[in-house]
Amino acid sequence: MRLILATLLLAAALPAAAERHVYDRAGVLPAGDIPRFEQYMGFIQRESDVDVRFVFVPGVGARSIEEAATETMDEMKIGGRSGQQRGLLLLFDTAGRRLKVEVDYGLEGYFPDAFVSYLVHEHAKEFFQSGDLSLGLRTLLTLLQHRIREAVLGMDFDPRALPCEGHARADLCDVSRVARAPRLRSGRGALHCGLTRLSLPLPAHGPLPAIHPPGRVRQVPPHRPARLPRLLVFTGTPFVSPHFFVKDGEVWRMDMAAEVRDTVERVGGAYTWDYRGTTDEYSKAFEDLLTKIQGYRRFKDGDNRALPIRGDKR
Questions:
Q1: Is 165 left (phi over 0), alpha (psi -120 to 50) or beta?
Q2: Most CB contacts within 10 A, which of 21, 142, 235, 312?
Q3: All structural domains of the chain with their residue ranges
Q4: Nearest to 128 by CA among 174, 170, 166, 164
Q5: By the 8 A CB rule, do 214 and 206 touch?
Q6: What residues contact residue 269 under an 8 Å CB cut-off, 6+ apart?
């Protein structure tokens, strides 16, 4: 009797198998990366009550991948915890080099065909062929989380952000015949090298109609030197951190090093980024625009809508 009771107490203390988010049955992910993915996906579920599962299998046997995905959804009861059918399965068949996305009924408005098509046709081939599956998985999670956050705030999916090519199937990708893609680059150095040369014709003030989502440029007061930095805060989305610009000859160039240094991305809370600069030139020039909201440092002029944390309402 004591042994039975101890076993029951231990089972209650352990997380249920259904609470896992990553199932690597093909053994393709580094074991040390899986706990970090689990934590990240747990934050996504807390934010938005969306149950995302990644399942890697070495093959689907005699079944079609569609049948395998349907059976996996039922077997794992994906999206069933909230009772609102808010589940999303990404089934990776590593032997067949295919990805199947299964969207539960409660999320059909979150993930329209154009978005799902982009995931499976544009990103899946990078995922399988990059040579770095963990990097591909992190990138895919970022895309999924951004779309979930938009949908939670009632923002429709904007297909203008995606390539214009159409695809016959939105939810299934076969990448076995795709030419090998270049290895994905990671790390702050690659990001800095790729983006520090970006430049924009910035107006003195007011919105920027040419960019999407909309934003507003703030410059330092007119009595300050003209070469002092400028700040671009976004007014059409609360998810994009501000951009910083410095004068370089006759153009204003994006200062990516400052963006990496002065902003930090967040997950699991009401806001997706906050400002952490203190004594650099941007922090001094725009100190009057900084405000603290729910413990986050943000800019007053920007879109400061907070995410409703759905996971707290269960």
A1: beta
A2: 21
A3: 2-174, 188-313
A4: 174
A5: no
A6: 47, 294, 296, 307, 309
In 3D space, the residue among 272, 294, 275 whose CA is nearest the CA of residue 286 turns out to be 275
**Residue 38 pLDDT > 90, yes or no?**
yes
For residue 84, the tally of other CB atoms under 10 A from its CB is: 17
Contact 245, 232 (CB under 8 A): yes
The distance of Cα 96 from the centroid of its chain, to the nearest Å, equals: 26
CA angle 148, 49, 27 (to 5 degrees): 80
State how far the Cα of 96 lies from the Cα of 57, in Å rounded to an integer: 10
Mean pLDDT computed over every residue of the chain: 74
The span from the CA of 46 to the CA of 68, in Å, is 27
**How would DSSP label each residue in 159-195?**
GGGS-S---S-SSEEE-TTSPPPPPPP-SHHHHHHHH
Separation of alpha carbons 234 and 245, rounded Å:
14
Determine phi and psi for 56, rounding to 5 degrees: -105, 125
Per CATH, the architecture of 2-174 is what?
Roll (3.10)
Work out the number of other CB atoms within 10 angstroms of the CB of residue 21: 21
Euclidean distance between CA atoms 73 and 75, whole angstroms: 6
Q: What is the pLDDT of residues 76-114, one digit of tens each?
A: 999 876 667 889 999 999 888 888 999 998 898 888 888
* Contacts of residue 74, Cβ cutoff 8 Å, sequence gap at least 6: none
